[in-house]
Amino acid sequence: MKKITTFENKKVLVLGLAKSGIAAARLLDKLGAIVTVNDSKAFDENPAAQTLLEEGIKVICGHHPLELLDEDFALMVKNPGIRYDNPMVVRALELKIPVITEVELAYLVSEAPIIGITGTNGKTTTTTLIAAILNADGQSAKLSGNIGFPASDVASEATPDDTLVMELSSFQLMGIETFKPKIAVITNLFSAHLDYHGSQEAYEAAKWRIQEHLTKENFLILNFNQEKCKALANQTKATIVPFSTHEKVDGAYEYDGKLYFKDEFIMNSADLSLLGEHNVENALAAIAVAKLQGAKNEAIISVLTAFAGVKHRLQYLGEINGHKVYNDSKATNILATQKALSGFDNTKLWLLAGGLDRGNGFDELADDIAGLKGMIVFGQTAPKLQNLAEKLGIPVFKSENVATALKEVLARTGNGDTILLSPANASWDQYKTFEERGDLFIQTFETLKNQ
């Protein structure tokens, strides 16, 4: 860790705990800052705050008192999930207190170079693939950021011989000031998080901040399948490395069923372990980073042919009585389910879908589910999905939840059929998170498999 003195004897407010807040508070304390943590959760129900207090860090819990900001703070480190219209954040900005997120701290102390990955879809899969390839090549890559490992925790332990492979959300990128990765990746840009950002333009501007401090010595990997990403190539000082499944580009591309990097054959598309065109895109982005990092083709091939997927993201669980089963609980919107469906033969596929009703219809899913062997629907949107399936002549059955849906579909499938949980809906009608929904599905799979 770099021994910086930037925060010595400076009063810093950490707003919001969770993993990133805890990591930021501890790092700042180690760097000599006078740290105050403010979290909305009551102290007696807040084990993290209790632990930090035991470590000598001041904590204020249960509410966000605006008068706290009268204490002449030099900096606020904000939990990424806290919006900028939060009264504490608004007041801090009015007082000219800089507001950053924890990834900026990570950059300031990291001795290791950073590969930063952002985008609407595919971030986690691409991040995981990149780290796996670099490690297979004998390099030391460490996952960090939005993927579940607080960036400042990982950065404080990293050495110059390591590489931080960091997943970055738009929320995190809004709170950077000097953050500069060696290589940046934007997987794609679709509509997302408009409730937080207010507009698609603001959301995309937040993502675009990943390249804000890059120079021609740095690389920006862009998805040239998207015209909006291709247009952005002229708006950065970084060296562009494109990837595409539609055309030959001066980077990573798919042509005639083969994957290339700058016209060097890497492997056949059919040998990828992950299904769907979106995963070909993810693989190409990972190949681009790996080749820029000097990884050997053998390492790339070994990972891309064996990778089983990230948990809850088109994760292959295995077989039950000749039925292949996939868990894509992360598919919390129609677009994610459309991408998942693109990798399967509908005539042998049963789709399990449903969840929170946000008021939208599902007509745009019609072309993607046409010809399905069958559907099991559940949750608040079950009636809407059932109606669509019946219009398309798809056999459809209602079930209570993902566990009962798996049991019911197994009773109806033929040998050689595939079962895909890809809900196309958020989970909050029945589950706290998509992870909880997916974990129940996995647990049910394991139980049924061992019967």
Would you spell out the secondary-structure blueprint of this structure?
Blueprint: E1 11-15, H1 18-30, E2 34-39, H2 47-54, E3 58-61, E4 75-78, H3 87-94, E5 99-100, H4 102-109, E6 114-118, H5 123-136, E7 140-145, H6 151-157, E8 162-167, H7 170-173, E9 183-186, H8 194-197, H9 200-208, E10 219-223, H10 227-232, E11 239-244, E12 252-255, E13 258-261, E14 264-268, H11 277-292, H12 297-304, E15 315-320, E16 323-327, H13 334-341, E17 349-353, H14 366-369, E18 374-377, H15 382-391, E19 396-398, H16 402-410, E20 418-421, H17 434-449
Parallel strand pairs: 1-2, 1-4, 2-3, 4-5, 6-8, 6-9, 7-8, 9-10, 10-11, 11-12, 16-20, 17-18, 17-20, 18-19
Antiparallel strand pairs: 12-13, 13-14, 15-16
Domain Mur ligase central: 117-290
EC number: 6.3.2.9
Enzyme class: ligase
Kindly summarize this structure in a few lines.
It contains 17 helices and 20 strands.
Describe what you observe in this structure:
There is one protein chain. With 451 residues, this protein is an alpha/beta fold. It has three domains: 11-100, 3-Layer(aba) Sandwich (Rossmann fold); 103-304, Mur-like, catalytic domain (UDP-N-acetylmuramoyl-L-alanine:D-glutamate ligase, 3-Layer(aba) Sandwich), CATH 3.40.1190.10; 315-449, Protein-Tyrosine Phosphatase, Chain A. It is built from 17 helices and 20 strands. The chain has helices at 18-30, 47-54, 87-94, 102-109, 123-136, 151-157, 170-173, 194-197, 200-208, 227-232, 277-292, 297-304, 334-341, 366-369, 382-391, 402-410, 434-449, and strands at 11-15, 34-39, 58-61, 75-78, 99-100, 114-118, 140-145, 162-167, 183-186, 219-223, 239-244, 252-255, 258-261, 264-268, 315-320, 323-327, 349-353, 374-377, 396-398, 418-421. The protein has a nine-stranded mixed β-sheet, with helices on both faces. A six-stranded mixed β-sheet has the order 15-16-20-17-18-19, sandwiched between helices. A five-stranded parallel β-sheet has the order 3-2-1-4-5. β13 and β14 form a beta hairpin. α1 runs parallel beside α6 (151-157) and α16 (402-410) runs parallel beside α17 (434-449). The longest helix has 16 residues, at 277-292. The mean pLDDT is 95.
